[in-house]
Design goal:
Jelly Rolls; 679 residues; seven-stranded antiparallel sheet; Immunoglobulin-like; 11 helices; TIM Barrel; globular; 4 domains
Length: 679
């Protein structure tokens, strides 16, 4: 075979240089990570815990006016949190010690709005202490989240809040609870709040008001290696979304002074001067705090696996939020899913098919210190490097026998910087190098890159680095044959009453089942005439399958929307979250008129799902036949633009429905919506 002969010839050339003198290491390409950042990269996955007054008041963002006595868990099984998360493979836990409502989960001296004035343990409890001790006992790292914004404190917006409350809280938390591996300063800052009874809107400049430079000095007095999220002197960065993904291209370098929009953090900056790697934060449920109504919306195993590939597999760390329920435990549904997820990942990566493979390259650097054998020696401290001025090297991997492969893992030796800009992957198919049809684009690598593709059967692989900023340094290459897994398909009923089903994976088989019918293969949109019915859709890949139920709202045919064209109406009522309508700035309400009286109990509003979309409804009022029936806030909707549900206590018969936007997130000028579903 042509490829086999080429490999043999390459081996002969390499053997001639076996006695050459040891070479020198490539020069570092700045920026490079600190020792603390290197240790952080190796964590890969750890957990967020949101728990507090919001849990017992069914809120995402408390206003700051809820009495401390409403924090009243009958039980608080901190040991269950830690044991569950440890079994799920988490390396640490970050607790929301204080959220935006200002309620503190430790008996702080800075405010009475804390656990010391709650019924829990008769005011003698300290949740920060309990969790930190349990983490230490089980060998997990411990971190804290402290919201700079405080909607309860009367002095918020004044200098005394920063000096006497915020900084003092940092001092308490970083002095009394052992070493912290990460500390979170949330980016939500200023806005409406209770503020000691003032009940008003307050604006601040977060970069100057909080004195972050002084805050971090306090933080590092007892925690010199702590990772800092947020503020003006971070050591890690928010990935720019709360949907659970980093960019396929993801540089660890970043420069906030050059940032034009926060979404740039999804990709990083190739030539920035600071090493500020990305952290992907996402919740296992739609919300960050526990809500009973979301018990059926825990992420599927397939979705969690995909999150892992789109975060850890794209040179980022994954911070997975696990809300605590009313009974003081991680809910059963969430716990089961977490363990399923860990078992699947362990099973996927337990057998490295390249462990005994031979790796050759004519572009290797002189000396055994940089030999290709280091790519499979399992040692993070060793690496292969290309020779001087070689920024487009090739590596050929020869297995003992042909294997089934569907995932390749690559790692750069990042103590010398991130270098790879583009690469290509080939496999031996009947004697010809054939490009591997990967799911993602092949650009950056960084600490870890996981590349998925349809299963191939081969004995040889070839990696071509096609572009790099300097000599290439790789520390690891691995290949795996992971079990088939499939995500539930996406589906919607259009305004024309047709069922559309689709999947990002072209290899899956799609099918559907109408009420009382059998499964039918899906090949094109199908007419469905039921109003408020149920449809099941299914995706199948090999032996793996996943189904999803759709609860159909009232058909669009029932409604007209005052001031909008039929085409705009169809976009808003087609159950498709990927269409959207942006309204003129003078229009701040949607007025729907039904063709007859309908019973209405639930309305689901889906914000514009476009990347970096604006115009999300923050505060709303809902009117049925001109009567106000509900009002409230869609909390954190800018960062987490998931569908939001307005539920009424009982069905109301009406013809006229009005959803009024009292305010828009980020003070946007135009209201923009993807979908409105009436049930």
């Amino acid at each position: 075979m042509r490829i086999r002969n080429w490999i043999i010839g390459l081996g002969v050339l390499l053997s001639l240089g076996a006695c050459e003198e040891q070479g020198t290491a490539p020069e570092a390409i700045l920026p490079i990570p600190t020792e603390a950042q290197l240790a952080w990269h190796k964590l890969e996955t750890y957990a967020f815990i949101h728990f507090g007054l919001n849990t017992y008041n069914d809120l995402e963002w408390g206003y700051g006016d809820t009495p401390a006595k409403t924090f009243a868990p009958d039980t608080l099984a901190v040991s269950q949190w830690v044991q569950t998360l440890k079994a799920a493979g988490m390396k640490g836990i970050i607790l929301t010690a204080k959220h935006h409502d200002g309620f503190c989960l430790w008996p702080t001296k800075t405010t009475d709005y804390s656990v010391k004035n709650s019924p829990w343990k008769n005011g003698k409890g300290d949740l920060v202490k309990e969790l930190s001790q349990e983490c230490k006992k089980e060998g997990l790292l411990f971190g804290l989240y402290l919201s700079p914004w405080d909607r309860h404190n009367a002095n918020y917006g004044k200098a005394e809040y920063v000096d006497s409350v915020f900084h003092q809280q940092i001092k308490e938390l970083t002095t009394n609870y052992g070493q912290l591996f990460e500390y979170w300063f949330d980016g939500a800052n200023g806005g409406s709040g209770w503020y000691g009874g003032a009940d008003e809107h307050r604006s601040i400049d977060p970069n100057s008001y909080y004195k972050y430079e002084e805050a971090v000095k306090l933080l590092k007095e007892n925690n010199p290696n702590v990772m800092v999220f947020g503020g003006t002197v971070p050591t890690i960065r928010w990935v720019g979304n709360e949907r659970g993904w980093a960019g396929e291209t993801n540089f660890s370098a970043y420069d906030f002074s050059k940032e034009k929009h926060y979404s740039e953090a999804q990709w990083g900056m190739p030539y920035a001067e600071q090493w500020i790697p990305a952290e992907v934060d996402v919740s296992i449920r739609p919300g960050w705090f526990y809500h009973h109504r979301e018990d059926h919306q825990v992420r599927s195993l397939q979705n969690l696996v995909n999150l892992y590939y789109q975060s850890v597999g794209r040179n980022a760390n994954l911070l997975l939020n696990c809300p605590i329920a009313l009974d003081g435990r991680i809910p059963k549904e969430d716990s089961i899913r977490l363990i399923q997820w860990r078992k699947y990942l362990d099973n996927s990566f337990k057998k490295d098919l390249l462990q005994k493979a031979s790796i050759k390259s004519s572009d290797s650097r002189k000396g055994t210190l940089f030999a290709s054998e280091h790519l499979t020696d399992g040692n993070d401290e060793t690496y292969w490097a290309s020779k001087d001025e070689c920024i487009s090297p090739s590596l050929v991997v020869e297995l003992d026998e042909a294997e089934d492969i569907n995932v390749l893992s690559l790692s750069e030796y990042i103590p010398l910087g991130q270098r790879v800009l583009n690469f290509a992957l080939y496999y031996d198919k009947e004697g010809e190098w054939t490009k591997v049809p990967t799911q993602d684009s092949l650009t950056t690598i960084g600490y870890k890159r996981l590349i998925r593709f349809p299963r191939i059967h081969t004995q040889s692989l070839k990696l071509d680095i096609t572009e790099a900023s300097a000599e290439v340094c790789l520390s690891k290459i691995s290949a795996f044959n992971t079990p088939d897994i499939v995500e539930a398909p996406k589906a919607y009923r259009s305004a024309e009453d047709k069922l559309h089903i689709f999947s990002p994976n072209r290899d899956v088989k799609l099918s559907y089942k109408l009420s009382g019918k059998s499964w039918t293969n899906y090949t094109q949109p199908v007419e469905i005439f039921s109003d408020q019915g149920e449809v099941e859709v299914r995706a199948t890949l090999g032996k793996a399958e996943e189904t999803k139920k759709l609860n159909l709202p009232y058909s669009a045919k029932h409604f007209t929307i005052i001031g909008l064209s039929k085409g705009e109406r169809n976009k808003l009522l087609d159950c498709n979250p990927y269409n959207f309508v942006t309204l003129p700035k003078e229009i701040r309400s949607l007025k729907l008129k039904a063709d007859e009286k309908l019973l209405v109990q639930e309305i689901v509003y889906t914000p514009n799902q476009s990347r970096d979309a604006q115009g999300h409804i923050q505060n709303y009022e809902l009117y049925l036949d001109s009567k106000l029936v509900s009002k409230g806030e869609f909390s954190n909707i800018r960062n987490n633009p998931i569908p939001r549900t307005i539920s009424l206590d009982k069905p109301i018969s009406c013809r006229n429905i009005e959803l009024k936007a009292i305010s828009l997130a980020n003070r946007a000028k135009n209201m923009s919506l993807a979908d409105l579903a009436i049930y």
